[in-house]
Write a structure and sequence with these properties.
The chain has 9 helices and 8 strands. With 182 residues, the protein is α+β, with helices and mostly antiparallel strands. The chain has 2 domains: 40 residues, no CATH class; 134 residues, no CATH class. A hairpin with a 2-residue loop joins β7 and β8.
């Protein structure tokens, strides 16, 4: 379990006690202000605890939904335009307008951690929207897997989401590549 320094102090644990727990191997120092009760770090938990408004998107969300086999080198998260920049080297932050940020948020449990990720319909729009920023092999893998589950997608929800993006090319590309229509 990831614990922030302020979580520990709220529990009445002072600096001396924290140091003692670390030395005893009952608590692991991850980085300034962040500790873990386990030696192995769950980055999904760490990101979600440190950045509670972060929403997993693009290749990271595709990995969560098993549309991609390998976890990307960086964790892709969406945040509001006015949010503070995340400085961690393992995070790729994508800023969104408040209107687009709130569309399709799915609160879920992944690896025993409560996280936020865009739902499948919103993720599809993001993948197609960012085609040029995604490695071609990864893009193909994700789109091919979407084609296999296309009948499970909520088409009405997808159409509703598309209204907010106001880009006909996204809809055309989804119809052509996922639904195999012209």
């Amino acid at each position: 379990m990831i614990l922030r320094y302020k979580d520990l102090t709220k529990q009445g644990i002072n600096d001396y006690q924290i140091k003692k727990l670390v030395n005893a191997g009952k608590l692991y120092f991850i980085k300034k202000g962040v500790y873990s009760t386990e030696k192995q770090i769950n980055y999904f938990e760490m990101i979600s605890r440190k950045h509670p408004n972060a929403i997993y998107t693009l290749e990271t969300a595709a990995y969560i939904y098993k549309l991609k086999k390998e976890l990307p080198k960086k964790y892709y998260v969406a945040s509001k335009q006015k949010d503070r920049k995340m400085k961690e080297e393992y995070i790729k932050q994508i800023f969104m307008t408040d209107e687009l940020y709130n569309i399709g948020i799915n609160n879920m449990t992944y690896q025993n951690v409560n996280i936020k990720a865009y739902d499948l319909e919103r993720l599809l729009i993001e993948i197609v929207r960012n085609k040029t920023n995604i490695d071609n092999d990864s893009y193909r893998e994700i789109i091919d897997n979407y084609s296999k589950i296309a009948r499970l997608l909520n088409k009405r929800k997808l159409d509703e989401y598309m209204q907010s993006f106001k880009n006909k090319k996204i809809e055309e590309r989804i119809n052509k590549e996922v639904y195999k229509t012209r």
